[in-house]
Amino acid sequence: MNVAEQHTARFRNKVPQVTLVFWAIKVMSTTVGETGADYLAVHAGLGTAATDGITLTLLVAALTLQMRMSHYVPWIYWLTVVLVSVVGTQITDALTDAMGVSLYVSTPIFAATLAATFALWFTAERTLSIHTIVTARRELFYWTAILFTFALGTAAGDLATEAVGLGFNLGVVVFGAMIAVVTAAYYLGANAVSCFWVGYILTRPLGASLGDLLSQSREYGGLGLGSVYTSLGFLTVIIALVAVLTLHRSTIMNERA
């Protein structure tokens, strides 16, 4: 692929380039998804069933809009990520809380399901790269994998912080350190695709632990900001960053015109 073809593929790609801003929004969207769902279910009094129905409906609508786009649109993409984060979390919570499935069971199940998704994706496309999500089939594989990374990240994070007793304070340190190791491995020459997906999984429990650290009361070791202020604060930053990304992309598109 020559330089011109690379630029064309990048422009047509339906997902963003992986940058520091990408990871920042990813972590914050995870936190917003976690605390936002809790707020709707508990503080707003909607209950688990109504919250699940609302978020699933919103996800289907956002994903349909995302799939209809011919190129990457920042606000649509990140809205979809936030909603996938919520639904992925709700899948794990439903298994654990409603059905009584142990985290020691659900975590390997989600890991196997994600591995199967990657195997089918690679068999069909011969690549797991996120730099060429330019067809509907690749995008469907991509979003399926994203959903299961959130479900797996939720299960593994809850297993570590709750079942094993790591706690959210130490969870921030441990998951942050694991991401640092993956980042170092990437810069030392490890497979970029593998590093991306491992990092994507780990940012889910990191974001959840960070959200708990900020929102939980001081009595339980948190900073006591509450789920509302934590969600609104992170959501404000996400909107600002997405606005910057949208403006930047509009500038690039105008230059290409």
Main β sheet profile: none
Query: Gyration radius, to the nearest Å?
Result: 18 Å
Poorly predicted runs are: 1-8
User: Percentage of helical residues?
Assistant: over 70%
Indicate the proportion of strand residues. under 5%
Q: What would the principal axes of the Cα set say about the shape?
A: globular
Number of strands: 0
Order of helices and strands: HHHHHHHHH
Number of domains: 1
- Give the termini distance in whole angstroms: 23 Å
Number of helices: 9
Structural category is mainly alpha
| Mean model confidence by pLDDT | 87
Topology:
Layout: H1 3-12, H2 20-43, H3 47-68, H4 74-98, H5 103-125, H6 136-163, H7 167-187, H8 192-215, H9 226-256
Describe it for me?
With 257 residues, this protein is an all-alpha fold. It has one domain (19-256). It has helices at residues 3-12, 20-43, 47-68, 74-98, 103-125, 136-163, 167-187, 192-215, 226-256. Helix 2 (20-43) crosses helix 8 (192-215), helix 2 (20-43) packs antiparallel against helix 9 and helix 3 runs antiparallel to helix 4. It is globular. Mean pLDDT is 87; it is low at 1-8.
